[in-house]
Amino acid sequence: MLELKQEQELQQKLSPQQIQYIKLLQLNTLDLDQRIKEELEENPLLEEGLDEEEQREEEELDATAEEMENELDTEEEEEFDVEDLLNNTDDMYGYNSPGYDADEEDRDRPMPADQTLAEQLQDQISFLNLDETDEIIADQIIGSIDEDGYLRRELESIIDDILFNQGVEVTEAEVEEVLTQVQSLDPAGIAARDLQECLLLQLYRMSEDVDGRQTAIEMLEDHYEAFTMKHFDKLKKRLDVNDKELKAAFDLIRQRLDPKPGEGEFSEETNYITPDFTVRYVDGEFVITLNGRNAPDLHISRHYRKMLEKLKAQKKSDEDGDIDEETRQFLKSKFDSARWFINSINQRRHTMSLVMDAIVQLQKDFFRYGEGHLKPMILKDIAEIIDMDISTVSRVVNGKYVQTEWGVYELKYFFSEGLETVDGEEVSNKEVKAELQRIVDDEDKTDPMSDQELADALEEQGFKIARRTVSKYRKHLGIPVARLRKEIVIEEGEDEAGRDA
User: What 3-state class would DSSP assign to 470?
Assistant: First the structure.
């Protein structure tokens, strides 16, 4: 027999306004600006800038100020001195005149149209006098080049694409021939299939009298593996060169060749960092400023507000107005949406300010003195100070940046685990990484330190950490193993003509 039972349970659900607030909280300044524009387009009741009454007040104040300024000018006209004008350059051309905003002018200035590297290559192709088939091949090759400037697709795949897209059958030899011509274009090294070919393409274009060129070409062509492993003794013996000649070849490759000739120029997206906060230390106090674009002047349209008041009055008096029920519901929903959006923006601004204040409070030494004074800090520390959930703090710091006297930093930069020094003091692991980088920079390049030796050197500085931790930090910093950090150092007075046996 079926038994019916009634149960009561509690469920926590977010309101639409809370969901909207959470979504706005994780946006950075540029994304928020775009989101506000979208909301202004969708909601006719939402307006940006001062409303009509505030605008009138501003205009009245401006008019009064202008009147007073004219009166002062009239009073001082008789005392006008030409020398004063010649010596006063502050207000010339309006650079410091009232109401002038250099940032506003920069925003209105059109951005120059940048040509992508793919477009530059296409322009150069037109000077090669290719026939129709070769132009199709060249277009396919250029379209297959990645953002670093490499052609990493197999030639067979390019041949298949040309046949499928253009209906033209070509051979691998034809593609190779056109590829050679594409590789002759600027920048040098473009369309290489691997790093070895990329470096050689750049060396081939150099003048023959460039110091180290011939040795570098021979080393890359015939002893590439020994080159990548930095087996200096083997290279000197096989190439029959001395230390100075081998060093000249290595320096030429390292200093004058570009391993990524594309340099990301094939990517159409350009990411700009706009700081969400500015922190300055002035007269013994920290001044924290939130980017003004995080606090736009949003209000509900006065015109639509009057319409809603009229509807409310009609409803109370039971009068039939000239607005139907559908319009009434539309205005009501848009009004609520606009009000929620404005409240969410204000709440977002308040939360971001709380988080930034707490970060500065815990990292005051960094904001005052810069690198080397970062303290261990986790999300929980900030959450406890502002009495909010850790997830809220995480949303605020993700993708947000602060402008300091020492540069622009992502807020996530200030969060790190702590390590205890020999003296029992707790320091940020970022400080340990900075010290590790300094030790590697200062090491003997002819005999680089192993991970254990690096751990011993850190312990001498007061940081007692295990070798495997040093290895992990070294990888995070992009520092290669000791063998690959080895360099050739030529002592002054060394016999240049001397050869190793």
Answer: helix
Distance CA(72)–CA(386), nearest Å, equals 51
Neighbours of 477 (CB within 10 A): 12
At residue 221, the pLDDT reads 95
Question: For residue 44, is the peptide bond before it cis, meaning its omega torsion is within 30 degrees of 0?
Answer: no
Q: Which residue has the tokens 């060749």?
A: 257
Q: What is the pTM of this model?
A: 0.53
Asked if 412 and 288 touch (Cβ cutoff 8 Å), the reply is no
Q: Which domains does the chain have, with CATH numbers?
A: 117-256 (no CATH), 277-414 (no CATH), 420-485 (1.10.10.60)
- Residue 488 vs residues 221, 252, 443, 446: alpha-carbon distances, Å: 21, 13, 13, 6
Helices 451-460 and 429-442: crossing angle, nearest 10°?
110
Q: What percent of the chain has pLDDT over 90?
A: 31
Residue 105 pLDDT more than 50? no
Residue 2, pLDDT score:
64
Crossing angle between the packed helical segments 213-222 and 195-205, to the nearest 10 degrees:
150
C-alpha atoms less than 13 angstroms from C-alpha of 339 in its C-beta half-sphere: 8
**How many whole angstroms separate alpha carbon 117 and alpha carbon 115?**
7
Q: What is the mean pLDDT of residues 432-456?
A: 88
Length of the chain: 501
Query: Which residue bears the tokens 């300044």?
Result: 29
H or E segment at 280? Answer: strand 277-282
Q: Is the dihedral of CA 471, 473, 475, 477 positive or negative?
A: negative
Assigned token pair, 273: 């960092």
Q: What is the mean pLDDT of the chain?
A: 79
How far apart, in whole angstroms, are the C-alpha atoms of residue 334 and residue 113? 39
Residue type, 475: K
Listed in sequence order, the residues at least 6 apart from 367 whose beta carbon sits closer than 8 Å to its beta carbon are 279, 281, 286, 360, 404, 405
80: pLDDT strictly greater than 90: no
Question: What is the DSSP annotation of 369-408?
Answer: H-TT----B-HHHHHHHHT--HHHHHHHHTT-EEEETTEE
Dihedral of the alpha carbons of 92, 97, 103, 106, in degrees to the nearest 10 = -40
Structural tokens at position 150? 């490499």
Tokens for 269?
């997206």
The answer to whether the CB of 279 falls within 8 A of the CB of 360 is: yes
* Structure tokens that stand for 284 in this block: 């013994």
Question: Which residues face 402 on adjacent strands?
Answer: 277, 409
What is residue 277's three-state secondary structure? strand
Of 208, 237, 209, give the one whose Cα is nearest residue 222. 237
Distance CA 219, CA 235 (A): 8
